[in-house]
Amino acid sequence: MTEMIQGAIEYAREHGDRFVDELLEMLRIPSVGADPAYAADTRRNAEWLANHLAALGLDNACVMETAGHPVVYAEWMGAGPDRRTVLVYGHYDVVPATMEDGWDSDPFEPVIKDGKIFGRGTTDDKGQLFIHVKALESFLKTSGAAPVNVKILLEGEEEVSSPNLVPWIQEHKDLIKADVCVISDSSMRVVEEPAITHSLRGMTYIEVEVQGPREDLHSGFWGGATHNPALALVEILKSLYNDDGTIAVPGFYDDVVPLTGAERAMLAKIPLTDEQFMAATGVPAVWGDANYTIRERVSARPTLDINGLWSGYSGPGPKTIIPVRAGAKISSRLVGNQDPNKIFELLKKAIEDATPPTVTVDVRLLTTGKAALIPFDLPEMQAASRAYERGWGYAPVFTRGGGSIPIVAELADLLKIPVVMMGYGLDTDGLHSPNEHYRISMFKQGIETAIVYLDELAEL
Amino acid sequence: MTEMIQGAIEYAREHGDRFVDELLEMLRIPSVGADPAYAADTRRNAEWLANHLAALGLDNACVMETAGHPVVYAEWMGAGPDRRTVLVYGHYDVVPATMEDGWDSDPFEPVIKDGKIFGRGTTDDKGQLFIHVKALESFLKTSGAAPVNVKILLEGEEEVSSPNLVPWIQEHKDLIKADVCVISDSSMRVVEEPAITHSLRGMTYIEVEVQGPREDLHSGFWGGATHNPALALVEILKSLYNDDGTIAVPGFYDDVVPLTGAERAMLAKIPLTDEQFMAATGVPAVWGDANYTIRERVSARPTLDINGLWSGYSGPGPKTIIPVRAGAKISSRLVGNQDPNKIFELLKKAIEDATPPTVTVDVRLLTTGKAALIPFDLPEMQAASRAYERGWGYAPVFTRGGGSIPIVAELADLLKIPVVMMGYGLDTDGLHSPNEHYRISMFKQGIETAIVYLDELAEL
Q1: Is the ipTM of this complex over 0.95?
Q2: Cα separation of B27 and B25, whole Å?
Q3: A180 min Cα distance to partner chain B (Å)
Q4: Closest residue, chain A, to B206 (C-alpha)
Q5: How do residues A117-146 score in pLDDT, each as one tens digit?
Q6: Could you give the domains of chain B?
Q7: Are the C-beta atoms of A321 and B433 separated by less than 8 Å?
Q8: Do B132 and B196 form a contact (C-beta atoms < 8 A)?
């Protein structure tokens, strides 16, 4: 087996620059799944991937329809039924990005600078999903075989919480049957400390809109006796928080499983100091529930964040109106046993209860996602740990991720297999931010680690 | 004199439809003074007016530069030095308008429906300023003379609080020297109750921007320990109000001159009921300081309104970011002795005091305007009252306007002359709103009233 691994790694090194060029080609497709204006581009990305996988010699490579953006599927089952099968999951959709957000260069015209690729989707998740594709290519083009069977499942709706993937999986359970699922859509604090994420936060994402008058009003005519919808929204939003930054929605914390002393001790091994946090984010001071460390707040505690606000006039100069309406996007990161739909009901009730009779309110659920927790003593998790040691050069830490990949919990529940989250990104890659980027060296080292992981799985 | 008046009125009736066509031509110029994108259009409107006035035979018709949008000036001094001179003030700039705001038709492609012209600027103020132009034309084209001298001063920055008109007036005091100033930029409750506005609210208009991180952050990574700038803005804005809707900014009410019993009795003559207010605005319930009647709240009491809010993502679907910043446009309508610059300092201090160390804040002054109060027993005011009786068919009420025309106070202060605000619009014309409109019958009756007012001034 060693020779087979060695061959694959040498191939990956030899063809690394071409792999980067291919990734750049995919990054140029603006697959902004959330925005209907980019629906055709999102589909084009799916087709690009299916064609790419077919060209590498994978079987059954195809674009499969869902009620939303399609799923890309392909498989290599040449290792035979006696070998394990690994299901690789990734997503080709990206969050919105425009120059106005503060990008230094076109988010969909990637540029390489200082050994990093700058562009939307570089680290989340096109760069990371491509690692597995290139690892498999490296085996197939050298030995004509991989140590285990590989199935690849790539979706186009991860950034909107995968609303159509669960029904798709339920219909295709046999097709994607596997022994373990591996996902690379997470990150590490520093290169020397790779991370296997064994816990993810869930999500409830809502949109709130307050309406007062039937249209914008002249603030001179009607100001003083009209409850300004922007003010009403401010009052409603304020009521959802306590002064100490905790969440005031009744019942919100009821189902949070308290952190044990052992868990807190493990999290304390990878501390996040005020200085590190301020340097990474640029905030003038750290905020949040003082009863928990910064690391705990961003990974093991639930949140309620305002993701967007809009009302009235935001152009240049003054405009003296009372806006007809005011809206907000709000999302909650969930942990432990918090149920996303129950949290939606609690939020909706709290918002409606806080709404005065002078305005009307509409609370809409946009997406939900379950939180996930995978035991880290499973053999497939320990195999991942050894793969990092051999392929990456450093032993990993097991960490809790603050983000949400709702499909992780769904995959584990529906397929009854371990889901191993081997991140190949850096916390500071700026995912979801302007100037998202990905280090080429991590992309290349990731491919080698992914090659080794297939070997480790074969040895189990 | 009666024959001269009669001739002018007959001419106005005969040419009324052409007057409307000319007004439509001007309404098609999108003179959105506040938006730099419309600077060329705004200038084009000034040139259109200067050409129009020159073509009517007025002297010295010209576009005069200021540091911002130009002033249009023209005069007819043929009544001679023994006659009074009236200065007509109006403004050709309009507030922003786009179809997305909820217009049923293009705001700058006016349409006539049910006897009303729909379009931005129809009532505020192109339709109303044009009344005086057409009244003067009706005299000049019939008698070759008007009963008094007329100077016309039209500006392009009223909607941004006339920042450059005061210096212009100071430089051109001799040019615009007059005995009385008349302005038609206000409205009445119903046609049968025309209104002379003898008081206007002042204004302090600010923009507030809160910044937290250096760019948008992934809410999963950093949420829980980052003070969300949108939440910080919500907290700051909430702190500016008391729970009863009054303003919590320290010192805000200090210089408000209390309403006397006599003033309250006069305002009580033109009540505004809950039902009327709800019907006119569409709000589900009336709001505000319960110590004052609705009419008092919207005209004789100061306000603090949020005119715009923005932060993060407001497109379709979810985007899980902590926004880099959040902003608001906020304006205060001022009364009595409230000084706009002092109010700005109070607001700035209150906002800065309410800003926690977890974010930074920037408070910018956009515009200010003084409140105005003109005694209604002046002869020029009483002449206006008679003009309505003769030309409009109904005796007017003297009312307090809730809006702000800062230049009214400046004109009165700088020129030491009475400023008579003869409104020819309806409260429900939707100025500053989508589907702003103006009744053609009021436009035509306004011209007749303006003709009569020149006669009444000559008789003083």
Answers
A1: no
A2: 6
A3: 25
A4: A318
A5: 999 999 999 999 999 999 999 999 999 999
A6: 2-200+371-459 (3.40.630.10), 202-256+302-369 (3.30.70.360)
A7: yes
A8: no
